[in-house]
Write a structure and sequence with these properties.
Elements: E1 2-7, H1 10-23, E2 28-33, H2 44-50, E3 57-58, H3 66-84, E4 88-92, H4 96-107, E5 111-115, H5 127-138, E6 141-144, H6 147-155, E7 162-164, H7 168-180, H8 185-188, E8 197-200, H9 204-207, H10 210-225, E9 230-233, H11 236-244, H12 248-254, E10 256-258, H13 263-271, E11 275-278, H14 281-289, E12 294-296, H15 304-308, E13 312-314, H16 319-328, H17 343-353
Parallel strand pairs: 1-2, 1-4, 2-3, 4-5, 5-6, 6-7, 8-9, 8-11, 9-10, 11-12, 12-13
Length: about 350
Protein backbone atom coordinates (compact mmCIF):
# COMPACT_ATOMS: atom_id res chain seq x y z
CA UNK A 1 0.00 0.00 0.00
CA UNK A 2 1.21 3.50 -0.81
CA UNK A 3 1.20 5.63 2.33
CA UNK A 4 2.07 9.30 2.68
CA UNK A 5 3.06 10.57 6.12
CA UNK A 6 2.80 14.33 6.67
CA UNK A 7 5.04 15.91 9.30
CA UNK A 8 6.37 19.37 10.06
CA UNK A 9 7.27 19.88 13.73
CA UNK A 10 9.56 18.43 16.42
CA UNK A 11 6.96 16.07 17.97
CA UNK A 12 6.07 14.69 14.53
CA UNK A 13 9.70 13.86 13.71
CA UNK A 14 10.06 11.74 16.84
CA UNK A 15 6.74 9.90 16.43
CA UNK A 16 7.31 9.29 12.74
CA UNK A 17 10.85 8.00 13.35
CA UNK A 18 9.62 5.03 15.38
CA UNK A 19 6.30 4.33 13.64
CA UNK A 20 7.84 4.43 10.16
CA UNK A 21 10.19 1.57 11.08
CA UNK A 22 7.12 -0.68 11.46
CA UNK A 23 5.14 0.67 8.51
CA UNK A 24 8.03 0.33 6.07
CA UNK A 25 8.25 -3.43 6.70
CA UNK A 26 5.20 -3.99 4.47
CA UNK A 27 4.30 -0.71 2.80
CA UNK A 28 5.67 2.07 0.62
CA UNK A 29 5.96 5.07 2.94
CA UNK A 30 6.50 8.47 1.34
CA UNK A 31 7.23 11.54 3.49
CA UNK A 32 5.98 15.13 3.13
CA UNK A 33 7.67 17.73 5.34
CA UNK A 34 5.71 21.00 5.45
CA UNK A 35 8.61 23.01 6.86
CA UNK A 36 6.58 24.29 9.83
CA UNK A 37 9.78 23.91 11.90
CA UNK A 38 12.76 24.90 9.77
CA UNK A 39 15.56 26.07 12.11
CA UNK A 40 18.34 23.41 12.19
CA UNK A 41 17.99 22.85 15.94
CA UNK A 42 14.23 22.38 15.61
CA UNK A 43 14.29 20.41 12.37
CA UNK A 44 17.31 18.94 10.51
CA UNK A 45 19.08 17.74 13.66
CA UNK A 46 16.15 15.37 14.31
CA UNK A 47 16.46 13.82 10.85
CA UNK A 48 20.19 13.37 11.39
CA UNK A 49 19.90 11.90 14.91
CA UNK A 50 16.87 9.68 14.41
CA UNK A 51 17.83 8.28 11.01
CA UNK A 52 14.78 9.63 9.19
CA UNK A 53 15.00 9.40 5.41
CA UNK A 54 15.00 12.66 3.48
CA UNK A 55 11.42 13.76 2.65
CA UNK A 56 10.21 13.13 -0.85
CA UNK A 57 8.68 16.61 -0.64
CA UNK A 58 9.87 19.49 1.55
CA UNK A 59 7.26 22.21 1.13
CA UNK A 60 9.30 24.92 2.90
CA UNK A 61 6.23 26.76 4.21
CA UNK A 62 8.00 28.34 7.19
CA UNK A 63 6.35 30.56 9.77
CA UNK A 64 3.38 32.93 9.49
CA UNK A 65 -0.10 33.52 10.84
CA UNK A 66 -2.41 30.57 11.35
CA UNK A 67 -4.36 31.38 8.18
CA UNK A 68 -1.28 31.95 6.03
CA UNK A 69 0.62 28.91 7.23
CA UNK A 70 -2.33 26.52 7.11
CA UNK A 71 -3.55 27.87 3.77
CA UNK A 72 -0.14 27.50 2.13
CA UNK A 73 0.16 23.98 3.51
CA UNK A 74 -3.29 23.02 2.21
CA UNK A 75 -2.47 24.14 -1.32
CA UNK A 76 0.92 22.47 -1.42
CA UNK A 77 -0.19 19.21 0.22
CA UNK A 78 -3.15 18.93 -2.15
CA UNK A 79 -0.84 19.26 -5.15
CA UNK A 80 1.36 16.43 -3.87
CA UNK A 81 -1.58 14.15 -3.04
CA UNK A 82 -3.16 14.68 -6.46
CA UNK A 83 0.16 13.77 -8.09
CA UNK A 84 1.07 10.79 -5.89
CA UNK A 85 -2.39 9.26 -5.30
CA UNK A 86 -1.68 7.50 -1.97
CA UNK A 87 -4.11 4.99 -0.49
CA UNK A 88 -3.56 6.29 3.05
CA UNK A 89 -2.40 9.55 4.62
CA UNK A 90 -1.07 9.60 8.20
CA UNK A 91 -1.04 12.78 10.29
CA UNK A 92 0.31 13.29 13.80
CA UNK A 93 -0.65 15.37 16.83
CA UNK A 94 -2.34 18.76 16.76
CA UNK A 95 -0.28 21.29 14.80
CA UNK A 96 -1.14 23.35 11.72
CA UNK A 97 0.58 20.63 9.69
CA UNK A 98 -1.81 18.07 11.21
CA UNK A 99 -4.99 19.91 10.32
CA UNK A 100 -3.78 20.89 6.84
CA UNK A 101 -2.79 17.30 6.01
CA UNK A 102 -6.04 15.84 7.31
CA UNK A 103 -8.22 18.39 5.50
CA UNK A 104 -6.39 18.09 2.19
CA UNK A 105 -6.61 14.29 2.19
CA UNK A 106 -10.23 14.16 3.35
CA UNK A 107 -11.36 16.58 0.65
CA UNK A 108 -9.68 14.34 -1.94
CA UNK A 109 -11.45 11.28 -0.43
CA UNK A 110 -8.18 9.68 0.63
CA UNK A 111 -8.27 7.54 3.78
CA UNK A 112 -6.80 9.42 6.75
CA UNK A 113 -5.25 8.02 9.94
CA UNK A 114 -4.63 10.32 12.92
CA UNK A 115 -1.91 9.30 15.37
CA UNK A 116 -2.61 10.79 18.84
CA UNK A 117 -6.34 11.21 18.27
CA UNK A 118 -8.96 12.09 20.87
CA UNK A 119 -7.08 14.63 22.99
CA UNK A 120 -9.26 17.43 24.35
CA UNK A 121 -9.05 20.26 26.87
CA UNK A 122 -12.37 21.81 25.76
CA UNK A 123 -10.95 25.32 25.33
CA UNK A 124 -11.32 26.72 21.83
CA UNK A 125 -9.00 29.64 22.63
CA UNK A 126 -6.17 27.10 22.35
CA UNK A 127 -5.19 26.74 18.65
CA UNK A 128 -4.19 23.10 19.10
CA UNK A 129 -7.68 22.25 20.37
CA UNK A 130 -9.26 23.38 17.12
CA UNK A 131 -6.65 21.46 15.13
CA UNK A 132 -7.27 18.26 17.11
CA UNK A 133 -11.02 18.37 16.63
CA UNK A 134 -10.85 19.06 12.90
CA UNK A 135 -8.22 16.37 12.35
CA UNK A 136 -10.28 13.80 14.25
CA UNK A 137 -13.43 14.55 12.26
CA UNK A 138 -11.49 14.28 8.99
CA UNK A 139 -9.96 10.92 9.93
CA UNK A 140 -11.14 7.40 9.16
CA UNK A 141 -8.76 5.76 11.66
CA UNK A 142 -8.23 7.33 15.06
CA UNK A 143 -5.29 5.96 17.03
CA UNK A 144 -5.80 6.98 20.66
CA UNK A 145 -2.95 7.05 23.19
CA UNK A 146 -5.18 6.67 26.29
CA UNK A 147 -8.60 5.47 27.44
CA UNK A 148 -9.48 9.11 28.16
CA UNK A 149 -8.91 9.94 24.49
CA UNK A 150 -11.23 7.09 23.43
CA UNK A 151 -13.88 8.36 25.87
CA UNK A 152 -13.55 11.91 24.52
CA UNK A 153 -14.30 10.69 21.00
CA UNK A 154 -17.23 8.60 22.22
CA UNK A 155 -18.78 11.74 23.76
CA UNK A 156 -18.66 13.28 20.29
CA UNK A 157 -20.18 10.15 18.69
CA UNK A 158 -16.88 9.23 17.05
CA UNK A 159 -16.82 5.46 17.50
CA UNK A 160 -16.06 3.91 14.11
CA UNK A 161 -12.37 3.45 13.37
CA UNK A 162 -11.32 4.32 16.94
CA UNK A 163 -8.50 2.22 18.44
CA UNK A 164 -6.79 2.37 21.83
CA UNK A 165 -3.17 1.81 20.83
CA UNK A 166 -1.14 3.46 23.57
CA UNK A 167 1.31 6.24 22.83
CA UNK A 168 4.06 6.04 20.21
CA UNK A 169 6.22 8.37 22.32
CA UNK A 170 6.71 5.52 24.79
CA UNK A 171 8.21 3.46 21.98
CA UNK A 172 10.42 6.40 20.98
CA UNK A 173 11.72 6.94 24.52
CA UNK A 174 12.52 3.26 25.00
CA UNK A 175 14.04 2.91 21.52
CA UNK A 176 16.37 5.92 21.80
CA UNK A 177 17.08 6.06 25.54
CA UNK A 178 20.22 3.91 25.43
CA UNK A 179 21.63 5.98 22.55
CA UNK A 180 20.69 9.19 24.39
CA UNK A 181 22.66 8.07 27.45
CA UNK A 182 25.86 8.35 25.41
CA UNK A 183 25.35 12.11 25.16
CA UNK A 184 27.81 14.24 27.12
CA UNK A 185 25.25 17.01 27.75
CA UNK A 186 25.33 16.65 31.56
CA UNK A 187 29.13 16.82 31.65
CA UNK A 188 29.19 19.68 29.15
CA UNK A 189 26.81 21.74 31.30
CA UNK A 190 28.40 20.55 34.58
CA UNK A 191 25.11 19.09 35.86
CA UNK A 192 24.54 16.56 38.63
CA UNK A 193 21.94 13.81 38.24
CA UNK A 194 18.52 14.87 39.65
CA UNK A 195 19.98 18.13 40.98
CA UNK A 196 18.69 20.55 38.34
CA UNK A 197 15.46 21.84 36.79
CA UNK A 198 15.03 21.84 33.02
CA UNK A 199 12.76 24.47 31.41
CA UNK A 200 11.09 24.87 28.02
CA UNK A 201 8.82 27.72 26.85
CA UNK A 202 7.40 27.93 23.37
CA UNK A 203 3.61 28.46 23.36
CA UNK A 204 2.42 31.70 21.77
CA UNK A 205 0.25 32.36 24.83
CA UNK A 206 3.46 32.72 26.85
CA UNK A 207 6.03 33.94 24.33
CA UNK A 208 3.79 36.55 22.68
CA UNK A 209 2.41 37.84 25.98
CA UNK A 210 5.16 40.02 27.46
CA UNK A 211 3.73 39.87 30.99
CA UNK A 212 3.54 36.09 30.93
CA UNK A 213 7.09 35.76 29.62
CA UNK A 214 8.37 38.22 32.23
CA UNK A 215 6.59 36.26 34.98
CA UNK A 216 8.21 33.02 33.83
CA UNK A 217 11.66 34.59 33.50
CA UNK A 218 11.35 36.12 36.98
CA UNK A 219 10.39 32.70 38.37
CA UNK A 220 13.53 31.14 36.88
CA UNK A 221 15.71 33.93 38.28
CA UNK A 222 14.16 33.51 41.74
CA UNK A 223 14.72 29.76 41.64
CA UNK A 224 18.37 30.34 40.81
CA UNK A 225 18.61 32.80 43.70
CA UNK A 226 17.21 30.08 45.98
CA UNK A 227 20.14 27.91 44.92
CA UNK A 228 18.44 25.81 42.24
CA UNK A 229 20.34 24.94 39.07
CA UNK A 230 18.07 25.90 36.16
CA UNK A 231 18.75 24.82 32.57
CA UNK A 232 16.81 26.60 29.83
CA UNK A 233 17.19 25.47 26.17
CA UNK A 234 15.61 28.52 24.53
CA UNK A 235 13.12 28.13 21.68
CA UNK A 236 13.78 30.59 18.80
CA UNK A 237 10.43 32.31 19.44
CA UNK A 238 11.23 32.80 23.13
CA UNK A 239 14.77 33.98 22.35
CA UNK A 240 13.50 36.70 20.03
CA UNK A 241 11.07 38.12 22.60
CA UNK A 242 13.49 37.81 25.54
CA UNK A 243 16.02 39.86 23.60
CA UNK A 244 13.42 42.44 22.65
CA UNK A 245 12.33 43.03 26.27
CA UNK A 246 15.91 42.98 27.65
CA UNK A 247 15.38 39.88 29.79
CA UNK A 248 17.91 37.58 28.15
CA UNK A 249 20.91 39.26 29.80
CA UNK A 250 19.35 39.00 33.29
CA UNK A 251 18.52 35.34 32.71
CA UNK A 252 22.05 34.53 31.54
CA UNK A 253 23.44 35.90 34.82
CA UNK A 254 21.45 33.32 36.83
CA UNK A 255 20.33 30.49 34.54
CA UNK A 256 22.14 28.07 32.22
CA UNK A 257 20.95 29.14 28.77
CA UNK A 258 21.46 26.87 25.75
CA UNK A 259 20.27 26.70 22.18
CA UNK A 260 17.46 24.21 21.46
CA UNK A 261 18.83 20.69 21.87
CA UNK A 262 18.50 17.70 19.62
CA UNK A 263 16.20 14.88 20.65
CA UNK A 264 18.91 12.65 22.08
CA UNK A 265 20.57 15.41 24.11
CA UNK A 266 17.25 16.64 25.42
CA UNK A 267 16.09 13.12 26.24
CA UNK A 268 19.15 12.64 28.45
CA UNK A 269 18.75 16.11 29.99
CA UNK A 270 15.08 15.46 30.79
CA UNK A 271 15.50 11.91 32.08
CA UNK A 272 18.13 13.01 34.63
CA UNK A 273 16.33 16.20 35.75
CA UNK A 274 14.93 16.66 39.24
CA UNK A 275 11.93 18.51 37.79
CA UNK A 276 10.78 20.03 34.52
CA UNK A 277 8.99 23.35 34.00
CA UNK A 278 7.31 23.54 30.60
CA UNK A 279 4.37 24.72 28.51
CA UNK A 280 4.81 21.85 26.03
CA UNK A 281 2.16 19.14 25.97
CA UNK A 282 4.67 16.70 24.51
CA UNK A 283 7.25 17.33 27.21
CA UNK A 284 4.58 16.99 29.93
CA UNK A 285 3.95 13.50 28.58
CA UNK A 286 7.65 12.66 28.15
CA UNK A 287 8.33 13.79 31.73
CA UNK A 288 5.53 11.53 32.99
CA UNK A 289 6.85 8.51 31.08
CA UNK A 290 10.36 9.21 32.43
CA UNK A 291 9.00 9.73 35.98
CA UNK A 292 10.12 13.36 36.23
CA UNK A 293 7.76 15.68 38.20
CA UNK A 294 6.37 18.39 35.91
CA UNK A 295 5.21 21.97 36.55
CA UNK A 296 3.14 23.21 33.62
CA UNK A 297 3.21 26.88 32.59
CA UNK A 298 -0.35 26.98 31.25
CA UNK A 299 -3.74 26.52 32.89
CA UNK A 300 -4.79 23.55 30.77
CA UNK A 301 -3.42 20.28 29.45
CA UNK A 302 -4.61 17.67 26.97
CA UNK A 303 -2.79 15.13 29.15
CA UNK A 304 -5.23 15.29 32.08
CA UNK A 305 -4.15 11.79 33.15
CA UNK A 306 -0.73 13.09 34.15
CA UNK A 307 -2.35 15.62 36.49
CA UNK A 308 -4.84 13.10 37.91
CA UNK A 309 -1.98 10.68 38.58
CA UNK A 310 -0.19 13.35 40.57
CA UNK A 311 2.96 13.77 38.43
CA UNK A 312 2.00 17.00 36.65
CA UNK A 313 0.64 20.19 38.22
CA UNK A 314 -0.74 23.28 36.46
CA UNK A 315 0.85 26.55 37.56
CA UNK A 316 0.20 28.86 34.63
CA UNK A 317 2.61 31.77 34.07
CA UNK A 318 2.43 32.82 37.74
CA UNK A 319 5.84 33.72 39.20
CA UNK A 320 5.17 32.84 42.85
CA UNK A 321 3.23 29.68 42.02
CA UNK A 322 5.96 28.40 39.70
CA UNK A 323 8.63 29.06 42.32
CA UNK A 324 6.64 27.43 45.12
CA UNK A 325 5.85 24.32 43.10
CA UNK A 326 9.37 23.99 41.67
CA UNK A 327 10.73 24.02 45.23
CA UNK A 328 8.15 21.82 46.93
CA UNK A 329 5.98 19.81 44.49
CA UNK A 330 6.55 16.07 44.80
CA UNK A 331 4.33 13.23 43.49
CA UNK A 332 2.60 11.44 46.35
CA UNK A 333 2.18 8.05 44.71
CA UNK A 334 3.98 5.82 42.19
CA UNK A 335 3.62 6.57 38.50
CA UNK A 336 0.82 4.45 36.96
CA UNK A 337 2.36 3.99 33.48
CA UNK A 338 -0.78 5.23 31.70
CA UNK A 339 0.52 5.31 28.13
CA UNK A 340 1.11 1.61 27.48
CA UNK A 341 3.83 0.02 25.36
CA UNK A 342 4.09 -1.26 21.81
CA UNK A 343 1.86 1.37 20.17
CA UNK A 344 3.80 1.32 16.90
CA UNK A 345 3.33 -2.42 16.37
CA UNK A 346 -0.39 -2.11 17.18
CA UNK A 347 -0.86 0.74 14.72
CA UNK A 348 1.12 -1.07 12.01
CA UNK A 349 -1.04 -4.18 12.39
CA UNK A 350 -4.20 -2.10 11.97
CA UNK A 351 -2.72 -0.41 8.89
CA UNK A 352 -1.88 -3.85 7.45
CA UNK A 353 -5.61 -4.65 7.48
CA UNK A 354 -6.74 -1.48 5.71
Amino acid sequence: MKIISIIGARPHFIKYAVLSKEIQKKHQDMLIHTGQHYDYNMNKIFFDELGILEPAYNLGIGSGTYAYQTGEMLKSIENVLVKEKPELVIVYGDTNTTVAGALAAAQLHITVAHVEAGLRNYDKSVPEEINRVIADYCSDYLFCPTKTAVDNLKKESLIKGVYLTGDVMVDALYFYKEKAERSSVLDDLKLTNKKYIVVTVHRAGNTDNVQNLENIANALIKLAEYGETVVFPVHPRSLKILKAIDLLKRLKEKVIITEPLGYLEFLKLLSHAGKVITDSGGIQKEAYILKVPCITLVDFTPWVETVEDGWNILAGPDTEKVVELALHFEPQRPNSNLFGVGACKKIAKIIDKI
